[in-house]
Design goal:
seven-stranded mixed β-sheet, Aspartate Aminotransferase, domain 2, Aspartate Aminotransferase, domain 1, globular, alpha/beta, 500 residues, four-stranded antiparallel β-sheet, 2 domains, 44% helix
């Protein structure tokens, strides 16, 4: 390129009138979406390829008018599944608040890379403060440290790596796992999230390193079986490293006996990690605090503000009692370009010393905005209302002859199934083999029913297997859901069941 052809003005920057135009149209789309979300179908009628058919899939070489792009963006909205709809109960995915959505825009506008204080001084300080606030919110630690992550899966994996390094010692960083001596073992219940086994696989320990602890009739980890497995592994020359307990399982929402598990972990000098990605904010409900007794003893806790604090994806968090445990895992001789020169104390802080990611977006801003705009008390009230609505759904199910409650409701997840009259009548007179066959028929019926509910667009339920039973699973983490939405969902399920 000729030196005279070097850029003299930006080709991508925009004049004020163009900026105002983008702002006006984007804001209108957001406003229309939030104000009309209740009137939408929960799930659009869609099929693979329909979205690209609506918006095109060829790369444009020339600029496309803003009006065209906004119209195509509206098409994407129309063809989406709406997690913010008040009758979306499919997964652990809370809707974004309006303030959360706009704060994501602000974070992207600044586009700070929150790797360290030098790279993003304001964002780094806000994130460290927000992490401390989250530790306070869930009654874990008033001065908790840690970092925000993409979600609970990443937080769980970091915690397991810290635990393993603590067991193996710092020399493993250079020697590698194959020279680390006896294999490590980790412990989690049969109800633990799939990210636990996946983390063991990714970290190189193998899925067989996860010891599956039996659950009781309430689907909670059994401490006596945990102790038995640890003793057996020690006798076999293995090294128990970490116990993972759940503060709200994703299947049924139950909380493991955290205090008893913490005592066993301490007795065997093991790392105690609590996976509270979904359920940890439930402790903010005064009526549920007792369930979480022992959470404060954990060495680390994962929780996702985007699951039950009504913050947009992605916003996970790993809380740590001892930040040095993480630092000794990740701190290393930095590459020259990321070395910190001329900084000390807080100005030398770097998140790469506490986690896996280097590039990190300003996730803390939307958490900060949400907590400050509404206040912690109002957030806690919404969580308590979610729990109460799940209890109300359970009451409706339990009092109906054509439904069956399949698991206790501890937090905001309710698992149930529909009982067709003809199958219900046969159960009472059937022998064990016949009842087993009837149960398989029930499972197939409810699987088809779930699909019909999802495609109806009137409500959205997911599924779980509970003691061999196919359950319709409602997870209520939605500040828009009301008592009438619960009642309507029951009516929808009953109505669609009659057509199968």
């Amino acid at each position: 390129m000729n030196i005279n052809e070097l850029r003299s003005k930006s080709a991508l920057d925009l004049p004020q009138d163009k900026l105002d135009e983008i702002s006006l149209q984007a804001t209108q789309l957001v406003s229309d979406y939030f104000s009309g979300i209740r009137d939408r179908s929960v799930r659009a009628e869609n099929y693979a390829g329909k979205t690209l058919k609506a918006i095109g899939n060829e790369l444009d070489r020339r600029a496309v008018p803003l009006e065209t792009l906004m119209a195509e963006c509206r098409s994407m909205f129309e063809l989406s599944r709406h997690n913010g709809h008040p009758r979306f109960f499919g997964y652990v995915a809370s809707p974004s608040t309006p303030i959360g959505a706009y704060s994501d825009l602000l974070a992207s506008t600044l586009n700070a890379n929150i790797t360290c204080w030098r790279s993003g001084p304001a964002g780094t300080e806000v994130e460290r403060m927000v992490v401390r606030w989250l530790g306070q919110l869930i009654s874990y630690d008033e001065s908790a440290s840690g970092l925000l992550t993409s979600g609970g899966s990443m937080a769980n994996m970091i915690a397991m790596l810290i635990a393993a390094r603590r067991t193996l010692g710092p020399e493993v960083r250079n020697k590698g796992l194959w020279q680390a001596g006896s294999p490590l073992t980790f412990y989690a219940s049969s109800e633990a999230h799939l990210s636990i086994a996946k983390a063991a696989d990714v970290l190189g320990f193998g899925r067989d390193s996860i010891r599956i602890v039996d659950c009781d009739q309430r689907h909670r980890l059994i401490p006596a079986h945990l102790r038995q497995l640890i003793e057996e592994d020690r006798k076999n020359g293995l090294r128990p490293s970490c116990v993972v307990a759940s503060a709200g399982t994703v299947n049924t929402g139950v909380v493991d006996p955290l205090e008893e598990v913490s005592e066993i972990a301490r007795e065997y000098a093991m790392w105690f990690h609590v996976d509270g990605a979904y359920g940890a904010p439930g402790v903010m409900d005064p009526g549920k605090k007792e369930l979480f007794r022992g959470l404060e003893r954990a060495d680390s806790v994962s929780l996702d503000p985007h699951k039950w604090l009504y913050v947009p994806v992605d916003a996970g968090c790993l809380l740590l009692r001892d930040a040095e445990a993480a630092a000794s895992t990740f701190r290393t001789d930095e590459a020259d370009y990321i070395k910190l020169h001329g900084h000390q104390d807080d100005e030398a802080f770097a998140f790469w010393d506490y986690g896996i990611e280097l590039s990190r977006r300003f996730r803390a801003l939307k958490v900060w905005f949400t907590l400050r705009y509404y206040g912690a008390d109002l957030i806690a009230q919404s969580i308590a209302e979610d729990n109460a609505l799940a209890q109300y759904l359970a009451m409706l199910i339990d009092s109906a002859e054509d439904f069956e409650l399949l698991a206790p409701v501890e937090l905001s997840i309710c698992c149930f199934r529909y009982l067709p009259k003809n199958i219900l009548a046969q159960q009472f007179s059937a022998n064990p083999d016949e009842r087993k066959a009837l149960n398989q028929t029930l499972n197939g019926f409810n699987e088809r029913l779930m699909s019909r509910v999802q495609t109806s667009g009137r409500a959205y339920l997911s599924n779980a297997m509970v003691d061999g039973n196919f359950a319709l699973r409602a997870c209520i983490t939605n500040f828009r859901t009301t008592k009438s939405d619960i009642e309507e969902t029951v009516d929808v399920v009953r109505e669609l069941a009659l057509g199968i």
